[in-house]
Amino acid sequence: MRTVRFTTGGIARHGVIDNNCVNTLVGPPWDGMEYAGDSYDLTEIRLLAPVQPPDVFAIGLNYKTHADETGSKYPPAPVIFIKAAASVVGPGDDIILPAMAPSEVDYEAELVMVIGKTCRNVSEDDALDYVFGYTCGNDITARDCQFKHDTQWARAKSFETFCPLGPWIETDLASDDVQVCTRLNENIMQQSATAAMIFSCRQLVSYLSRMVTLRPGTVIMTGTPSGVGYTRTPPVFLKPGDRVEVEIEGIGVLANRVVAEASESG
Questions:
Q1: Which of 14, 72, 132, 239 could, after both became Cys, cross-link 25 (CB 3.0–4.6 A)?
Q2: What is the 3-state secondary structure (H, E, C) of the chain?
Q3: What domains, with CATH codes, occur in the chain?
């Protein structure tokens, strides 16, 4: 099953995709799957980020190849950071290069989990019972803020538009071994599989649930494989006019354009 969040007539709603139609839900799909009774053709609506998360948790250095390319040791436990919920945008939305840090903005393709029910202190065996489904994510990062200017990652990871999600949530996915790919202007930049993750989806949900209560709609970004822009020679950073695509096997393609932040007027 694929669920979406969309807008028509200026109203944001949730729905379920059935062929080329979206059957509207009364509320978020994890709230009981109550149908509202109306439907729309996919061509009549604008897809939004499929979830408005109360929290966005992300995992660093979760692929050995990414740790290798950064010269980092393999972490003994998940490396957790948080992205601001205000950084979330949807498929087709612009990634905005912020005026205060426009020069070293990077892409990171990630499999994303969406929590479906309140989750606290769960075992690894039971962890995936609390996952509603999966979507594509792009952990956009201002590398100069991350490594040169700040002593932590919050600003680097949390500029507005730095968390594209979508295009929908796929509930039927065997997350342990799916392909993850990034294309920049149609060139493949990242290509790996979730089987290469250091910590599995089960382990991540269980670990995080021992830290904090995971509420329905919470997003967990599971880490990125090798091939990020700042490790390349020469480095590859996003620039206005670029098109970034994150494709995950069994889900689909999340595509976004890159633009410069508009200058203030007046």
A1: 14
A2: CEEEEEEECCEEEEEEEECCEEEEECCCHHHCCCEEEEEEEHHHCEECCCCCCCCEEEEECCEHHHHHHHCCCCCCCCEEEEECHHHEECCCCCEEECCCCCCCEECCEEEEEEECCCECCCCCCCHHHHEEEEEEEECCEEHHHHHHHCCCCHHHHHCCCCEEEEEEEECCCCCCCCEEEEEECCEEEEEEEHHHECCCHHHHHHHHHCCCCECCCCEEECCCCCCCHHHCCCCCCCCCCCEEEEEECCCEEEEEEEEECCCCCC
A3: 2-47 (2.30.30.370), 56-260 (3.90.850.10)
